[in-house]
Amino acid sequence: MIVYTDIVSGDEIISDSWTLKEIDDVVYEVDCAMQEVGATHINTGANPSAEEAEESLQDDVQKEINVVGAFKLQLLGDRLSGDKGFASSKAYHAQLKAYLKLAGKALLAKGLEKEEIIAILDKARKYYKDVIEPNFDNYDFYAGQSLDPNGL
Q1: CA proximity to 101, closest of 85, 124, 84
Q2: What pTM does this model have?
Q3: Whole-angstrom Cα distance, residue 26 to residue 44?
């Protein structure tokens, strides 16, 4: 199994256990699903007593995206209030610019040629402009487990 990490924060982000679609050698789209997490039911075969039948406890079952749970990704923002973690696509773009600068430095330290790095960063910017920005309101944003503010 190959586990992909954020080059800036070092957080594990995804693995090849999921169906990945590589876009322009720079972005992975992940085929994931919702899963229920929470209380586990264990059937012992015994009948409930009269007292237990009266106390029907509701399980604390929640739904989450399987990739989010597996890699302990942290939602930026708040589902209840609708806060996305970024006030606007411009705020996200500012974060992305800072991240790409750090990612470029990390790629240079790994030995990539400057021309390769420029091509990668240009493709990332194009993906943002063509896909994320026009659909910004349809996205939820997550960070790695460490919540490193420099990571993505």
Answers
A1: 124
A2: 0.78
A3: 50
What is the C-alpha to C-alpha distance for residues 32 and 35, in angstroms, rounded to an integer?
10
Q: Which two tokens stand for residue 81?
A: 């209030």
Which pLDDT tens digit goes with each residue over 23-49?
A: 998 999 998 888 888 766 566 666 665
The pLDDT assigned to 33 comes to 87
Place of tokens 């590589």: 22
- Determine the longest span between alpha carbons in the chain, in angstroms: 74
| Residue-by-residue DSSP string for 99-135 | HHHHHHHHHHHTT--HHHHHHHHHHHHHHIIIIIGGG
CB 147 within 8 A of CB 7: no
Confidence of residue 80 (pLDDT cuts 50, 70, 90): confident
Question: What count of Cα atoms within 13 Å lies in the side-chain half-sphere of residue 3?
Answer: 8
Helix, strand, or coil here: 70? helix
